[in-house]
Amino acid sequence: MDKTLLLQQVLTHLQADLEQAHQAALSAHETATHEENVAENKYDTLGLEAAYLASGQARRVEELRQTLITWRQLRLRPFDENQGIELGALVQLLDAHDQVRWLFLGPQGASMKLQHAGQTVQVLGSAAPLGRALLGKVPGDQISVPMAGAAQDFEVLSVE
Q: Which residues pair with 121 in a beta bridge?
């Protein structure tokens, strides 16, 4: 698998999310400031509700912008067994049910599933429980992560 292509897919996905959130924020702002939404009495809260929505949409846009900046700064390096798994690693895991999973570990804020080279790859931030557990590990290591009230066990099969 090509980590550079995976990173490009993540950036493309984040850019599309940012553009969509930006349009939603503009629409919410328009609604909040439209003359028809001026309160006619103290019970008319449509304009106020629209303003809250616009504020939330603006925060979402800023979060996505920061996530995109962080992911653009990610530098992919070959796996170094002395360092173990770090940001930018493409990890193949085996779960307790003998199911193989591919994970692309990066900065937080971009949890998504991608299709690459005929495989589903879960993009995972290093702040997620599984992401934290993987940091510093090498092929052959076992990890256990609490998920859904029970421990999930994995074996690191390979790292690129």
A: 102, 114
Contacts of 53 (CB under 8 A, 6+ apart): 28, 31, 32
Beta-carbon contacts of residue 158 (< 8 Å; ≥ 6 apart): 91, 92, 139
pTM for the model stands at 0.82
Provide the CA 142 distance to its chain's centre, in angstroms.
Answer: 24
pLDDT in tens, the chain (160 residues): 899 999 999 999 999 999 999 998 888 777 766 666 555 666 555 566 777 777 888 898 999 999 999 999 999 999 999 999 999 999 999 999 999 999 999 998 888 999 998 999 999 999 999 999 999 999 999 999 998 788 999 999 999 9
